[in-house]
Amino acid sequence: MKRPLTQVRWERFTQRPLFALALAFAVAYAVPIVSPDAGRDVVDVCLAVEWVVWGAFALDYVVRLGLAERRGEFVRSHWLDLGAVLLPVIQPLRLLRLVSTLLLVGQRARMASQIRLTTYVAGAVVGLLMFGSLAVLSVERDSPNGNIKTLGDAVWWSFTTMTTVGYGDHAPTTGVGRMLAVGLMLSGIALLGVVTANIAAWFIARFEKDDVEERRQTEAIQVLTEEVRALRAEVALLSGATVPGQVVEKQPR
């Protein structure tokens, strides 16, 4: 007898396929930007892949909504998912589809276990770095006053922006580019903070584990020491010898 399909089972079943689709979206989004001379057919295929991935995430939201026991509560607690799904429909721009895909992948990553949280967040940092680089390159490359003209410039700018270093050698000049910079700063600070916190928590847990093990070994040594003393005292009594620090009374004749 098959078990009924539940929201938890659906989320576990679709987590990896949706992650693979997100990777396909990353490739489809990057190709027209990295290769601006690509043919029209290549651009159309990439655009179709982007919409297919968005449709898959939209379908996933609809299915989870249908499987939820309390749909009203599901909508309230997953409002970010709903906004990410509706965002490209309101204004179908490639940049909005990029933002919505990042949001949806982030929401799916939150369902992973705590053990793999650092890996997901680190992947999100790398993904945000690359997507931010591609996005700013796409809007700044054709700007007359822009100085972000190559992918290397864009990656360098994204890295210095996410880490809040800000050397100032590269900076966006368009309005959209500056909006991307603000989003990249805020997202970078948040994600890098989570990574740092998880690494610190891991080290603290390791130190606490070592301290507990050391205390356990010390207690075991103390117990063994007491047992050895007790055995020596018993052996000394049985053999009639005098144990150091112990007075043996002489028996009357």
Describe this structure in words.
The chain is mostly helical and 253 residues long. It has a domain at 1-111. Helices cover 76% and strands 0% of the residues. The protein has 8 helices and no strands. The termini are far apart. The model has no long low-confidence stretch (mean pLDDT 77).
Judging from the principal axes of the Cα atoms, what is the shape? elongated
Largest sheet: none
Mean pLDDT: 77
Number of E strands:
0
Number of helices: 8
Helix content: over 70%
Structural class estimated from helices and strands: mainly alpha
Low-confidence stretches: none
Our measurement of the CA-to-CA distance between the termini, rounded to an integer number of angstroms, reads: 89 Å
Q: Over all CA atoms, what is the radius of gyration? A: 31 Å
Query: What percent strand?
Result: under 5%
Order of helices and strands: HHHHHHHH
